[in-house]
Write a structure and sequence with these properties.
Blueprint: H1 2-11, H2 25-33, H3 51-63, E1 83-86, E2 95-100, E3 112-117, E4 124-132, E5 135-142, H4 144-147, E6 157-171, E7 182-187, E8 196-204, E9 207-214
Parallel strand pairs: 1-7, 3-6
Antiparallel strand pairs: 1-6, 2-5, 2-6, 3-4, 4-5, 6-9, 7-8, 8-9
Helix pairs in contact: 1-2, 1-3
Bound molecules: iron/sulfur cluster.
């Protein structure tokens, strides 16, 4: 493996700039070998100048039977994300904390709510796990069967437009971000396959809580520095 490490390191740009999320190129080479980084995490390897080098590194990894990490890409926006956020074990969807902008507070645990997340065109249905004043912790359970007026849930409360405050789930593939990192992620099951951004406020093992959710994806919204 030392040879693979050396050969990859020889090919990396050598700028030691940290834009890949690792302080130096040798740390990045190590992360590639350990399956903790994707080749594209080094922004230079995506440029025309280093296109052949990126291909050579991909071949070196393949030859060493190391599976290269692939970054997920949003369906609707075609943007690259850092990871897919999966539900906690045994749960149907990632947990979401939502805040109804209508000020609705008459919602209780176990009830189904209908809402539209701010910035998302799709009406959601969700089961309330916890109701704490104006903050609801929910699991997504629809929309399709509810729009048809059929299905398991007959009653629901319409809480209108909601600000999505947080997501909680697990990072099954790739590097688990550190607390304080700004990340791009795709919540598993997101009906638009849309890249979301947010700030990691808790990371225990591979379980993370991400707050300050935004559907606008800014260039700087990533744990990796912009080169
Ligand atoms: S972004 Fe590329 S050049 Fe910069 S430290 Fe990482 S591997 Fe090296």
């Amino acid at each position: 493996m030392d040879d693979v490490f050396r050969e990859i390191l020889e090919r990396l740009p050598g700028f030691n700039c940290g834009a890949c999320g690792h302080d130096r190129c040798d740390e990045f080479a190590e992360a590639l070998i350990e399956g903790r980084a994707a080749i594209e995490d080094c922004p230079y390897l995506k440029s025309e100048r280093f296109k052949d080098v990126a291909e050579e590194i991909r071949e070196l990894l393949e030859k060493a039977e190391i599976e290269a990490v692939e970054r997920p890409v949003g369906i609707i926006d075609g943007l690259e994300a850092d990871f897919v956020l999966s539900p906690l074990p045994g749960e149907p969807s990632c947990r979401e904390d939502i805040h109804p902008l209508t000020g609705t507070t008459n919602v209780e645990e176990g009830e189904i709510v209908r809402y539209r997340p701010l910035g998302c065109p799709i009406t959601h249905f969700a089961e309330v796990l916890k109701a704490d004043g104006g903050l609801l912790t929910v699991h997504i359970v629809g929309p399709l069967h509810r729009i048809e007026g059929e299905g398991e849930y007959e009653d629901f409360k319409d809480v209108g437009l909601c600000f999505v405050v947080a997501f909680e789930g697990i990072v099954e593939e790739g590097r688990v971000p550190d607390v304080g990192e700004t990340v791009r992620f795709i919540p598993e099951g997101c009906m638009m396959g849309k890249v979301h951004t947010g700030v990691v406020v808790e990371a225990v093992g591979n379980k993370v809580r991400i707050e300050y959710i935004d559907l606008k994806v800014w260039e700087h919204a990533t744990g990796r520095k912009v080169a």
